[in-house]
TrEMBL record:
UniProt keyword Transferase present: yes
UniProt-listed Enzyme Commission number(s): 2.8.5.2
Key words, A-Z: Electron transport, Heme, Iron, Metal-binding, Periplasm, Signal, Transferase, Transport
One Pfam match: SoxA-TsdA_cyt-c
Ranges where the Cytochrome c domain occurs: 163-274
Family per record: Belongs to the SoxA family.
Subunit-structure text: Heterodimer of SoxA and SoxX.
Compartment(s) of residence: Cell envelope; Periplasm
InterPro entries xrefs: Cyt_c-like_dom, SoxA
Catalytic activity from the UniProt record: S-sulfanyl-L-cysteinyl-[SoxY protein] + thiosulfate + 2 Fe(III)-[cytochrome c] = S-(2-sulfodisulfanyl)-L-cysteinyl-[SoxY protein] + 2 Fe(II)-[cytochrome c] + 2 H(+); L-cysteinyl-[SoxY protein] + thiosulfate + 2 Fe(III)-[cytochrome c] = S-sulfosulfanyl-L-cysteinyl-[SoxY protein] + 2 Fe(II)-[cytochrome c] + 2 H(+)
This protein's name: SoxAX cytochrome complex subunit A
Main location per the UniProt record: other
Signal peptide limits: 1-19
């Protein structure tokens, strides 16, 4: 009887070792497959390029009750200067007395320069499945594209910028919701993944640079360019947390935290995601 039990234990142990080895091999094969998939996507060009072109047209088009373009919009580098602007956002703006990210700043310009309705812009800021990218998504694509190849330098010189970073860090590590999750639950340690998706450790400079520099991105599975505001909203949804309000201070603070952690990375957005 003892011999049978020992044999059974040996069989179970052998199966466990085999399963662990198979799992490791499967993970390795999955990573190779995902990398090949990304390369295949890139071979046909990034569909975001067309959205960038639409965004440029919208930037220069006279719109709204004031029949004005966005060419006087100050994104932090001076009125109308788009080149390099995204690499230095979010940042403090003296005219509003607040730290703003790209989307909240574009919203401000569309309302104040063009006279467009704030609530209506927010309502349609994120396109639905099957729709062409929204005006906001297109404008974001255009502005982001003009920082491609530039170093990420989210400023921390103003007191409010440093306070935004501190709040963003607190939000990143805050646990809540029915699963007691935080952003750090998925993105605060090395070597984590969910299904076939690697989860970068956003508290470390290397992974933070790689992740932050590739967003906003065109999501092939959704057929749309998705912005950083959308990315954060979707993360909160997956945590089963309350919906992150579009353009809220919390969303801006969290973006500041991520952007500062990615300092020195080279912008490669709009990226291309599965």
């Amino acid at each position: 009887m003892k011999r049978i039990v020992l044999s059974a234990l040996a069989l179970v142990s052998g199966c466990a070792v085999f399963a662990a080895g198979a799992a490791q091999q499967s993970a390795s094969s999955a990573e190779q497959g995902i990398e090949q998939y990304r390369q295949m996507l890139g071979e046909g060009g990034n569909p975001a390029d067309l959205i960038v072109m639409t965004g440029e047209d919208l930037w220069k088009e006279k719109r709204g009750p004031k029949k004005a373009t966005l060419e006087k919009c100050d994104l932090g580098m001076g009125p109308g200067v788009v080149k390099g602007a995204y690499a230095h956002l979010p940042r403090y703006f003296k005219d509003t007395g607040k730290v703003m990210d790209l989307e909240s700043r574009l919203l401000y310009c569309m309302v104040n320069l063009q006279g467009l309705d704030r609530d209506d812009i927010i309502k349609h800021a994120i396109s639905k499945s099957g729709e062409y990218s929204s005006d906001m998504e297109s404008l974001v694509g255009y502005v982001v594209d003009k920082s491609k190849g530039m170093k990420i330098e989210v400023p921390q010189s103003h007191k409010q910028e440093r306070e935004a970073y501190a709040r963003g860090k607190e939000i990143f590590f805050f646990r809540g919701g029915p699963y007691d999750f935080s952003c750090a639950s998925c993105h605060g340690a090395d070597g984590q993944r969910i299904r076939l998706q690697d989860l970068p450790n956003l508290t470390k400079q290397g992974p933070a640079r790689a992740a932050y520099s590739s967003w906003p991105a065109y999501r092939v599975s959704q057929g749309a360019l998705r912005t950083m505001q959308w990315r954060l909203q979707d993360c909160f949804r997956q945590q089963r947390m309350p919906v992150l309000k579009y353009g809220s201070q919390a969303s801006i603070d969290l973006t500041v935290f991520l952007g500062v952690n990615a300092k020195g990375g080279e912008m490669a957005a709009p990226g291309l995601k599965r």
